[in-house]
Structure prediction request, 135 residues.
Amino acid sequence: MKTTERATEEDLILIRAMLELPYLIKVLDADIKRIEVSSLRTRAALTRQLDRLREETRHEMREVRYNLRARGIKIVRQERLEDRLSADYVCRGHHDRMTLMWSRVKADVEELTAACLDVRPPRRIPLGEEQESNA
Prediction:
């Protein structure tokens, strides 16, 4: 008799990545197009950097797809709604659904982009240090 097994935390991370990574690629494609037609002096460097990130994302999607297959997970249907993205999947015989709000997908895509580009928030200088360095 075949047993079904619910998705583990690692499985859910892979499923989520498989849902979100295509949107990261779409965002990068749109940004590259905008930069290419801009008059920015640094557009060549910016487009190379974003193109590199897009290729890394495609590679990561292939790895995620391979890992999903190896774990017996298949995303069988995706549905884009106005406020959310839903996906039905089968995990080792167990049917389930994942729903992500678009606001969360957007935040995750921005977080992934910042991490991949090694973007850090500006360093805040405490008032005391700023005054001392100006003296």
